[in-house]
Amino acid sequence: MTITPCRERWAGTMTDRERFNRQMHYKSVDRSFNMEFGYWQENFTEWPLFMENGVTNNGEADLFFNFDRIAGLSGNIWMSPPFEQKVIEDRGDKQIIMNGDGLLAEVAKDGHTSIPHFTKASIVTPDDWKRCKEERFRLDDPARIVDVEALKAQHPDDRDYPLGVWCGSMIGKIRDMLTFEGLAYAVYDYPAMLEDMVETCCQHVELSLDQLLPHIQFDYASGWEDICFNHGPIVSVEFFEQVIFPRYKRIGDKLHAAGIDIWYTDCDGDVRPLIPGFLEAGINCLFPYEVNSCVHPKALLDEYGKDLRIMGGIDKLEMIKGKEAIKAYLESVAPLVERGGYIPFCDHRCPPDVTPENYLYYLDLKEEMFGM
Question: What is the CATH number of the domain that holds 32?
Fold first, then answer.
């Protein structure tokens, strides 16, 4: 089904690529880069706006709302092959499933979006990790060879949109594999195993970058951690300083050598204790920057100046409240958009609690204020 946009594209005199690069480098732009991070799955089955227009996923929603284009690509940097995803047990309204990371998880059968309740990890001891590493993290796995020519054909150097290279995760995906509790224990019980897991993640990212960076002109780098909650990181800052940041630095050195100086990582929660280490290693942008577990984006952009960028940071809870709250919040970030280094959008997937009427108001007002 062809998606018909419901809105005109924001007018502008720059390409999306030029606009993104200038905005992220604190340079003047014709208008703000126009993007959103996406929506909960329930939005596609509850919002008439989506249901009546055949919009079923975030990619289609981007086309439907006519947002600016931003793209990314990656080599194979995680488990290969992943664990087989299957149902282990049926418990009436819930199922116990094994996911691709080898975790047993309790999930609701009705399909509503929620964080799964993980009940058991496949990787607990160094022997478990040794076996998993040999089976699923081989650097010489043919599946890790990147088809560079195909990617170059898809994303030519003269494209008009920004393209990012994926730098994965140094500890967030390990948390997924071990569970929150398993990671907390492993820091103390199996520190050598944990550091080897981090090193393995780093090596796979480096292998991917070594294949991609010489051949494709990227505009930014991206990654994912989700290693913080509302009271800070779930492992100590000392652990990050000793184990994680040196691996980030190795990746950052490769990116900088290739001319890439914008690197964001998707890390929810209160990231403030990690920002100095992020910046030193080369991660200089926060995404999608959740406000309620941290602070208003102005506080961090004032503190770190032009060393830091933020993408996101529009408080979803204020969007739920309605038009007056939406207007007040957009007015509070207007100076940040004008200053640069900040792209405003909902501070994670937009929940269905935001009504379609209020969401369209938000998009209209954002265009009025930042469409310039």
Answer: 3.20.20.210
Q: If you search the block for the tokens 């979803």, which residue do you land on?
A: 316
Q: What would the two tokens of residue 268 be?
A: 């929810």
Q: Answer yes or no: are the C-beta atoms of 264 and 311 closer than 8 Å.
A: yes
In the numeric block, which tokens belong to residue 4? 């018909």
DSSP 162-230: -EEEE---SSHHHHHHH-HHHHHHHHHH-HHHHHHHHHHHHHHHHHHHHHHTTTS--SEEEEE---EET
For residues 89 and 124, what is the distance between their CA atoms, to the nearest angstrom?
A: 22
Whether 74 and 92 map to the same domain: the answer is no
User: By C-alpha distance, which of 27, 49, 31, 28 is closest to 39?
Assistant: 49
Structural domain total, the chain: 2
The answer to whether residues 106 and 187 belong to one domain is no
pLDDT (tens digit per residue) in 183-223: 999 999 999 999 999 999 999 999 999 999 999 999 999 99
Residue 364's closest CA among 3, 4, 7?
Answer: 7
The boundaries of the domain holding residue 103 are 84-121
Residues 228 and 88 in one domain: no
Cα distances (Å, whole numbers) of residue 227 to 230, 235, 266, 353: 11, 8, 9, 26
What's at 258, amino acid-wise? A
Are 174 and 245 found together in one domain? yes
Alpha helices in the chain (DSSP H): 16-24, 43-46, 48-51, 58-64, 126-136, 148-154, 172-178, 180-189, 191-212, 237-239, 245-257, 275-281, 297-304, 316-321, 323-339, 356-370
**Rg, Å, the chain Cα set:** 21
Residue 7 scores a pLDDT above 90: yes
Q: Is the pLDDT of residue 75 over 80?
A: yes
Structure tokens of 188? Answer: 């103390």
| Cβ neighbours of residue 149 closer than 8 Å, sequence gap 6 or more | none
On whether both 169 and 309 belong to a single domain, the answer is yes
327: pLDDT strictly greater than 90: yes
